[in-house]
Design goal:
This protein is an alpha/beta fold and 241 residues long. The protein has one domain (33-240): Vaccinia Virus protein VP39 (Rossmann fold, 3-Layer(aba) Sandwich). The chain contains 9 helices and 7 strands; from the N terminus they run H-H-H-E-H-E-H-E-H-E-H-E-H-E-H-E. The protein has a 7-stranded mixed sheet, sandwiched between helices. Strand 1, helix 4 and strand 2 (94-98) form a beta-alpha-beta unit. Helix 4 runs parallel beside helix 5 (102-115). Residues 5-23 have low confidence and may be disordered. This is tRNA (guanine-N(7)-)-methyltransferase. InterPro entries: SAM-dependent_MTases_sf, tRNA_(Gua-N-7)_MeTrfase_Trmb, tRNA_methyltr_TrmB_bact. S-adenosyl-L-methionine binds at residues 74, 99, 126, 149. Its EC number is 2.1.1.33.
Length: 241
């Protein structure tokens, strides 16, 4: 599993409307002094607390970012290196990063501050609940899911995030023409993603099969090392019809 240089938000999803299961597994990890300091000093500026909005209500993201712009949600950004690079490359787009692990949140806060990235905010919470409670319907220009936990063992496959029920629910939050971009270095999960996404009538594949890696997604150190060793990486880019 690639993790954008650290385990990303580990996806453990079952259908959103069935038994409530978090979209991650909480795992421990050491935090550096810089990450701790960032959480203490930078969180008020760049983080948004999770808000349990009533159904039908949502966060005023135009107010949060101070402008109207296309908005992309990232599910599980790991240590945030790729997230910060994408935000810097695409300053005309606003990014909402969801991650539960404090070390990754602290690291991304440092990168946001160092790069003075005004188009990136963090919500330290389960991405599925952020979607349901904080994102307006039909408002997102895109969703990124890079290197989620593949749950290798067969008995754990039900914990993978990309399942038909989740994708159907996700569609409610995508604007017409918006995209869903997933990437994985675990071929069986790539095959499952391709099957699930292709079977959803509300989506169409922008490519004949797997996608060419879009220029905006940078290679992580983990991914580059894997490619040198001959490991594969599979990108999928689907669009809401």
């Amino acid at each position: 599993m690639d993790e954008q240089d650290c385990p990303a938000e580990d996806q453990a999803a079952t259908p959103v409307h069935a038994r409530r299961v978090k979209s991650f597994v909480k795992r421990g990890g050491r935090m550096g002094t810089g990450q701790i300091k960032a959480l203490q000093e930078l969180a008020p500026k760049y983080m948004l607390p999770y808000a349990e909005q009533a159904p039908g209500l949502a966060t005023d993201w135009d107010g949060v970012f101070g402008r109207q712009a296309p908005r992309v949600l990232e599910i599980g950004f790991g240590m945030g290196d790729a997230t910060a690079k994408i935000a810097a490359t695409l300053p005309h787009i606003d990014f909402i990063g969801c991650e539960v692990h404090e070390a990754g949140v602290g690291a991304l806060l440092q990168r946001i501050d160092e790069g003075q990235l005004t188009n990136l905010r963090i919500v330290q919470h389960d991405a599925v609940e952020v979607l349901e409670r904080m994102i307006p319907k039909a408002s997102l220009a895109g969703v990124h899911l890079f290197f989620p936990d593949p749950w290798h063992k067969k008995r754990h496959h039900k914990r993978r995030l990309v399942q038909p029920a989740f994708i159907k629910d996700l569609l409610q939050y995508l604007a017409p023409g918006a995209y869903f971009h997933a990437a994985t270095d675990w071929e069986p999960y790539a095959q499952q993603m391709l099957e699930v996404l292709s079977a959803e009538g509300g989506l169409k594949n922008r490519f004949p099969g797997y996608a060419e890696k879009p220029d905006y997604r940078p290679l992580t150190k983990f991914e580059a090392r894997g490619l040198r060793l001959g490991h594969g990486v599979w990108d999928l880019v689907f669009e809401k019809v």
